[in-house]
Specification:
The chain has two helices and 15 strands. With 215 residues, it is mainly beta. It has a domain of 98 residues: Thrombin, subunit H. The protein has a four-stranded antiparallel sheet with strand order 1-2-3-4, with no helix packed on it.
């Protein structure tokens, strides 16, 4: 197992693993959680029971619940982000969005209708709901260079990614045109209004912690 996230009601546990699967488990403990709220997976579940399993095309790096707990999302090493709507019942409606970027590593719901993700491209990506479901919206560009705004330095980030995979070092790689100079590994709320995140932070392997406005 690589990652886990608690449901807002604390009786469901979402996990991601290197076997290309995300799973939902029951975490309700009899005689401890006396009256656990009903969930889309039912209310007669035993502790540790596997309730749902979702398969994707790469190892799952991170998982997250939406603020309401009515949906979940996770990112995998095949440059995909998966959204599962469980509002109408389990196991839910699954949608996989593939992006033309390097693999994503972490993600954050800033609202029920928006997710920010980050990874090896070194810049945050924005996903929003549309009439056809979830879709990639834009990359948050932090420099005035028009090329950087459109690509986020993807080519340079790819060279860094390739060198790390092949020789284990960042050799022959120039400074990236992005604010972060290495993979974004964590996203966290910084300023919250109600259930919406107005500002968030990114932490990366370059040692930087950056505060962003939600798109």
């Amino acid at each position: 197992m690589l990652s886990l996230a608690w449901h807002p009601n604390n009786v469901l546990l979402l996990t991601g693993s290197s076997d290309f699967k995300a799973r939902v488990f029951s975490a309700a403990i009899k005689n401890v959680d006396k009256s656990p709220p009903a969930t889309p997976f039912g209310d007669k579940t035993g502790f540790g029971e596997l309730l749902a399993e979702y398969l994707v095309g790469g190892w799952v790096h991170n998982v997250v619940w939406s603020p309401s707990g009515n949906s979940l999302a996770f990112v995998a090493h095949d440059s995909s982000i998966t959204f599962v709507d469980i509002s109408t019942g389990a196991p839910g409606n699954l949608q996989i969005v593939k992006v033309a970027f390097l693999p994503l590593y972490d993600l954050l719901y800033t609202s029920e209708n928006q997710v920010i993700a980050g990874g090896h491209d070194c810049s945050p990506l924005v996903f929003n709901t549309t009439q056809d479901g979830w879709a990639f919206s834009n990359l948050i560009a932090e420099k005035k260079d028009p090329v950087a705004q459109k690509t986020g330095g993807t080519k340079q980030a790819f060279e860094l990614f390739k060198n790390k995979v092949e020789v284990g070092a960042n050799t022959n790689v120039q400074t990236l045109s992005t604010l972060h100079q290495n993979c974004i590994t964590s996203l966290a709320p910084f300023e919250v209004a109600g259930k919406d995140v107005k500002k968030f932070t990114t932490g990366a392997l370059d040692g930087k912690l950056v505060v962003w406005n939600s798109a």
